[in-house]
């Protein structure tokens, strides 16, 4: 155990790891609002570590404080709080570990390292009696980690459901409102700076998977291995699906969900889902994020706001920094992680499904599909036949099922693909269940 550093003196020295989009906003917030003459929260950035110190940055920091040398932060007796804003696991995990072992408190916005190695980092923080806070790692400016850790601690959390990736929500919103195709909207999102040039982490659902892993661990006091979280991205959602879903009373969102009960265990999943128009989640548009938490005592709570961006993220980072300066020792915010829930299998998830097929436009097609579904114990709720192309003898068949088990649906889908009457299975989307809806 090490003695936490520089928390008893008047000024708290901050060491920044990363001075990019968020790091620069944090550095500027400290300079603008928390300068030495501000008596309420005296903070000072004393060192910053980057990849390329020669890069031009919009940050009011002395150039001599910026280097590539991690020791300028970790071995610096002036640094009481390390703020990690580099991203990724390597070298962030090692740097955070070294800082905690050196008795420095750490604040991070890094969802990937907290999802994949958070359990180890929290243990290291506890062993060294320092704090590791990570409010900005999920949903940017929205306070969600703090409420789960502190304000809702007396509740059994029934469910957590969120739109926690702004890039995919921007894309899906545009597709819904403009009838545009995925690739066109992705290009626009990239040109507006809402999507990275390599958009994989967002559009394939990895980013949301990391974030729901972090939230689920906090809500259910169970380590949720990232690889055990069912993940699907949005690349298979087509403009047509929005049109047909709308006729059925739904829109489509990329949802991240964690739900648990003592019988079936804890299931965490990320996938595009049909959402009924009348629930609040359906109205969360553009780059906004939202998280719905249902606790047994408090009932349903709703958090909505900017899930990214320099200032909203700096707001969450600075909230953690100020919390550290006010509380000193980390013991009250470093949760122990008992293991009360088994991780459930996605195979046992039960929901309604939306299926879109391109089928031959001839009698008996629906009967053949219905038979396959029936054999898998799945019954049909409604059917739409759309976009009939008589010249080529094909039509879109949209089927909404009654609730069914995931494993049954996957086995039915394999058989449906084998039918000669089905030319293509275009979409399989899950319908999100809202228990308070009749
Ligand atoms: P960014 O703009 O790419 O900045 C990353 C910074 O880290 C850069 O200053 C870079 O140095 C430095 N860096 C990267 N690898 C390094 C290494 N190996 N050694 C030393 N320095 C290194 O990223 P960002 O958007 O600010 O995101 C930072 C973190 O905040 C990530 O974990 C991200 O997931 C999280 N976050 C971001 C947002 C957002 O809106 N951007 C929202 C919530 C959470 P150079 O400047 O020299 O390249």
**Tally of distinct domains:** 3
Q: Are any ligands bound, and if so which?
A: NADP nicotinamide-adenine-dinucleotide phosphate
The outline comes out as elongated
Evaluate the radius of gyration: 24 Å
The CATH class of the largest domain, by name, is Alpha Beta
Number of strands: 17
Number of helices: 13
Q: Give a quick account of the main beta sheet: strands, pairing sense, barrel closure.
A: 11 strands, mixed
Percent range of helical residues? 25-40%
CATH architecture of the largest domain: 2-Layer Sandwich
Structural write-up:
This protein has 438 residues and is of the alpha/beta class. It has helices at 21-33, 71-74, 92-101, 111-127, 145-151, 166-178, 182-191, 200-203, 206-220, 239-248, 310-327, 365-375, 406-418; strands at 12-17, 43-49, 66-67, 81-84, 105-108, 132-133, 157-163, 230-231, 250-261, 265-276, 288-295, 299-306, 350-360, 380-389, 394-401, 404-405, 422-431. It has three domains: 12-140 and 312-327, Rossmann fold, CATH 3.40.50; 152-304, Dihydrodipicolinate Reductase, domain 2 (2-Layer Sandwich); 346-431, Alpha-Beta Plaits (2-Layer Sandwich), CATH 3.30.70. Helix content is 33%, strand content 26%. Strand 5, helix 4 and strand 6 form a beta-alpha-beta unit. Helix 1 crosses helix 11 and helix 4 (111-127) packs parallel to helix 9. Residues 330-334 have low confidence and may be disordered. Bound molecules: NADP nicotinamide-adenine-dinucleotide phosphate. NADP nicotinamide-adenine-dinucleotide phosphate binds next to helix 1.
